[in-house]
């Protein structure tokens, strides 16, 4: 089969690999129908994730058709169309019993990280009963693809951790795919005012289409001054950090109100300054996390009912065989006006 293989920092090739085989009785083999590229994949290619070995097939998002299952798989059948969760769930360890699936002792984020991933014609999925979600007929495949990772991430780590409530003023820092996913999901809770902050005017325009009331571009505007105008100098109730750099985490600290919540979603590769000398008296909460994907069934029902339309995040479509070109586009997302790229197997 063909797969996108990592060969060390800056090196990736679409090449022949042996097709996956069932190893454990709880495994399934899934033929990929659609997959996509994540910002985490770019971090891997930069060499920022040293736990990824050369020779690894990348990717942790996808939908596909089940081709074979192990003898212990009960709920997933050959022929099922499924959403592949970015988080592998054994269902029985101490973390899984607390719904902290991201920290599963025999899973968590392993696809495209510690085992071969989804940017391939086929993939092996451990603990298939818990790590695959059957896709109902009629659900848009591009929408379903967003349920692998980014929509649950924005919802769980941004909206739920940030404790967004009706009437809140919230700010999202970073209008990339995860930030826009958090924007979509935040509207479940009817915040009174949604502010999106980014330096990319195209993405800010998309944020307005998705429901942002105010957009702020720090290249042209003073963030704190603009937030103070909106909130009468009080600050926002929830700040959701969706970039993962020191400057954006500082913005969250600068704009949060007393009693507010900072929810960090971004992947940080460098240390940040935490200004406790200013924040200790403000009674704020700061949360971090890796998605558990426990919300995927609920989000799938919301997609089915038309309450949310994550397929809007898909801006580019390519055949899976053109994945190297797609990486070039995604790596220049601002110039190419790219959000999520849908790769479809021929």
Automatic annotation (TrEMBL):
Lineage of origin: Bacteria, Pseudomonadati, Pseudomonadota, Gammaproteobacteria, Enterobacterales
Obligatory cofactor(s): Zn(2+)
CDD domains: FDH_like_ADH2
Gene3D superfamilies per the UniProt record, alphabetical: Medium-chain alcohol dehydrogenases, catalytic domain, NAD(P)-binding Rossmann-like Domain
Family: Belongs to the zinc-containing alcohol dehydrogenase family.
Protein name: Alcohol dehydrogenase
Domain Alcohol dehydrogenase-like C-terminal: from-to ranges: 177-295
Top-level taxon of origin: Bacteria
InterPro entries, alphabetized: ADH-like_C, ADH-like_N, ADH_Zn_CS, GroES-like_sf, NAD(P)-bd_dom_sf
PANTHER family: NADP-DEPENDENT ISOPROPANOL DEHYDROGENASE (PTHR42813:SF4), ZINC-TYPE ALCOHOL DEHYDROGENASE-LIKE (PTHR42813)
PROSITE patterns per UniProt: ADH_ZINC (PS00059)
Single Gene Ontology MF annotation: oxidoreductase activity
Keywords: Metal-binding, Oxidoreductase, Zinc
Organism, as annotated: Xenorhabdus hominickii
Residue ranges constituting the Alcohol dehydrogenase-like N-terminal domain according to the UniProt record: 26-137
């Amino acid at each position: 089969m063909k797969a996108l293989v990592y060969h060390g920092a800056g090196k990736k090739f679409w090449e022949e690999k042996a097709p996956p085989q069932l190893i454990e009785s709880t495994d399934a083999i899934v033929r990929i129908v659609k997959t996509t590229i994540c910002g985490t994949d770019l971090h891997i290619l930069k060499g920022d994730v040293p736990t990824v070995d050369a020779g690894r097939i990348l990717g942790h998002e996808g939908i596909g058709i089940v081709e074979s299952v192990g003898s212990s798989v009960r709920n997933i059948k050959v022929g099922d169309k499924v959403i592949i969760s970015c988080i592998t769930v054994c269902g029985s360890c101490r973390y899984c019993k607390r719904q902290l699936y991201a920290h599963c002792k025999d899973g968590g984020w392993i696809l495209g990280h510690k085992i071969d991933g989804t940017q391939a014609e086929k993939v092996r999925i451990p603990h298939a009963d818990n790590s695959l979600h059957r896709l109902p007929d009629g659900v848009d495949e591009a929408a379903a693809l967003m349920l692998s990772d980014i929509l649950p991430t924005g919802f769980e780590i941004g909206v739920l951790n940030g404790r967004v409530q009706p009437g809140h003023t919230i700010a999202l820092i970073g209008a990339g795919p995860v930030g826009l996913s958090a924007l979509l999901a935040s509207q479940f809770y009817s915040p009174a005012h949604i502010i999106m902050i980014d330096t990319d005017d195209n993405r800010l325009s998309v944020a307005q289409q998705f429901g942002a009331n105010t957009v702020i571009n720090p290249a042209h505007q003073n963030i704190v001054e603009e937030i103070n105008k909106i909130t009468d100098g009080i600050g926002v109730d929830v700040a959701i950090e969706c970039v993962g750099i020191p400057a954006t985490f500082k913005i969250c600290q600068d704009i949060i109100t007393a009693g507010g919540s900072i929810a960090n979603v971004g992947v940080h590769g460098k240390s940040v300054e935490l200004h406790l000398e200013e924040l200790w008296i403000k009674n704020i909460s700061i949360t971090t996390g890796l998605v558990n994907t426990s919300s995927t069934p609920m989000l799938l029902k919301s997609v089915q009912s038309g309450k949310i339309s994550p397929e809007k995040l898909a801006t580019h479509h390519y055949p899976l065989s053109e994945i190297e070109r797609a990486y070039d586009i995604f790596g220049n997302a601002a110039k190419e006006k790219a959000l999520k790229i849908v790769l479809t197997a021929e």
